Recover the amino acids of this structure.
């Protein structure tokens, strides 16, 4: 279930789950006549700043899109540089994140990733498994459609084993098979760089998320942008298919 309900004027009771499509690294580099990889490196710095600022912005869960199932279509050198950046991020930042009480979870398919990358992912998750102050989820080799397919397949396998029947399938059952299982859906999904699409991010979980588009390129992102996104979120009224609080009063 979504974490927050109620009228827009009511501040959210629980820390928010913000999800970010970190887009615009390539354009940031191009504007400076730099190779794309330098845009991605600057993007990692922006991620650090954003994680650091999140608790003060009222965010308790941050999910970021690091590498999509479609990003394999990029030139091989860029793909391997992006893989390398995950390794650098874990090598340089894991200890500090762990000490600060951040739990790290990597979403997406492990199949298709090289064994050394899978090891890095497992190290990041196991080193921070006991933490609970803040949750950082990194979607890596992640696609919303692939994640739904994997969840459906898990259920179909249970049917094949005779442990479930087709009629048992409902939203809750499917949801428990997703790589995001156990974490409330995002309250807001932010996309930077001016693009206005989801690009296969959190397709199931976005059902009632507030979509916020910010024109800043990801490497330029910082605390002030996250603060602005949350302020925009707080102005929205979430109705979940119901009526507004005002309508209820008007109807007496
Ligand atoms: C986002 O920046 C990072 C990843 C997709 C890994 P891009 O690399 O997509 O940057 P643009 O969209 O080309 O500017
Ligand atoms: C989405 O951005 C993926 C990530 C941010 C990791 P893309 O830049 O790959 O998306 P499109 O291709 O513009 O839709
Ligand atoms: Mg892009």
């Amino acid at each position: 279930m979504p974490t927050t309900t109620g009228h827009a004027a009511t501040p959210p009771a629980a820390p928010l789950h913000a999800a970010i499509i970190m887009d615009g690294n390539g354009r940031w580099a191009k504007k400076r006549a730099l190779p794309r990889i330098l845009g991605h490196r600057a993007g990692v710095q922006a991620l650090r700043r954003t994680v650091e600022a999140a608790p003060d912005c009222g965010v308790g869960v941050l999910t970021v899109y690091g590498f999509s199932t479609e990003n394999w279509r990029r030139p091989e050198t860029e793909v391997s540089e992006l893989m390398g950046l995950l390794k650098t991020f874990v090598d340089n930042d894991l200890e500090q994140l762990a000490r600060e009480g951040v739990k790290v979870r990597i979403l997406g398919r492990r199949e298709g990733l090289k064994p050394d990358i899978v090891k890095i992912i497992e190290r990041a998750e196991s080193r921070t498994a006991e933490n609970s102050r803040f949750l950082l989820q990194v979607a890596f080799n992640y696609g919303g459609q692939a994640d739904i397919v994997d969840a459906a397949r898990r259920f179909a396998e249970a049917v094949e084993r005779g442990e479930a029947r087709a009629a048992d399938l409902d939203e809750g059952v499917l949801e428990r098979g997703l790589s995001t299982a156990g974490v409330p859906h995002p309250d807001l999904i932010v996309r930077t760089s001016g693009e206005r699409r989801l690009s296969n991010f959190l397709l199931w979980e976005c059902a009632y998320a507030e979509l916020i588009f910010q024109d800043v390129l990801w490497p330029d992102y910082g605390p002030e942008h996250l603060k602005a996104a949350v302020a925009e979120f707080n102005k929205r009224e979430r109705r979940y298919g119901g009526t507004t609080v005002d309508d209820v009063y008007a109807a007496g």
Observations:
- The longest helix spans residues 76-99.
